[in-house]
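Sample pair:
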Amino acid sequence: MGGGLLATPLGLKRRVTIMEYKMKIHLVVFIFLLLFANSCTENSNPIFPTNTGNSTILFSSNKKLAVINADGSNYQIIPIESNTVTVANLSSDASKVVYGSVDTTYQQIILYNLRNNETVKITDDNLFHDSPVISPDNNSVLFLTKFNWTYHLYLKNIVNGNVKLLNNSLNAYDPTFSSDGSKIACWGNNEGDSVGVVIMNIDGSNPKFIGKGYYPEFSPDGKKILYQNPIPPYDEGLYIMNIDGTDRNFISYIPYQTKPRFSPDGSKILFSKFTDNFDIYLINIDGSNLINLTNSSEGETQPEFTTDGSKIVFVQYDSVSKINKLCSMNTDGTNKKVVFEDSSIYGIKIF
């Protein structure tokens, strides 16, 4: 791998500093959510398949992992082997679920096939694994493995079982695929005093540090990257740039937010942020026309567009019933309705 991605003590110190900052922010968010919504982790946004007629939501309820159509139909509990699921993602055709399963000491990556009820162990060792994502062609799983205090990026072909180390010089976080599956984006510390976004080919070749930031998200056409950066002393900023790191533009302040998402056509960005409470916001990619879609006394988090872009699905905490509800609405905030009533007390949503 390129020497520019090797971690140095200075780069590591900077990474730890920003990670500590992020942990403080996340702790505040977590406290608010426990008291206000009893739900949600930062990476727990709805994940929808891209080529099915009816968008499918992956979520947890009463400590069970389940799927349901965005219109509330076809609710199914996934018969997983683990009682503790920390992160989960759905394949693009809604046929597979990959999740992190915690045993007594380590976290392993498990794949469950919804069509043939087959369970496949993506990892099975004495190491900690995290952040699994299924490739757009549904043939591979991207994940992180921690050893020597560093997260390494791996890709496993679930067809032939081959496993490849993509990068061992980058302390990687939050890997994601471009929509065509040709590229991978993640963030980590580079050689200098910074934490930044890295893009590489799917085979791990040609890794490039394209600028400071974290939590990268490809635009639907794969030409731009949505990312975040701290704005001292305590704010978070949402930014967008080209995949070569050029044309970096500020979009919005996003205090205490959940991970932003592009609209299917790439023209808008959806996120929730805390002001007086958590609300769902929509904004153009040029930073114009910021709209509060919920603006209610309840807490709304974890928004995502349905596949066709006609609806938004989100989580609302009902302060009367004291439960979390999966809800949907039009993209202008009208026609809000409940998709699924979650009766769990501490049902952390993993969408």
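The first helix runs from residue 9 to 36.
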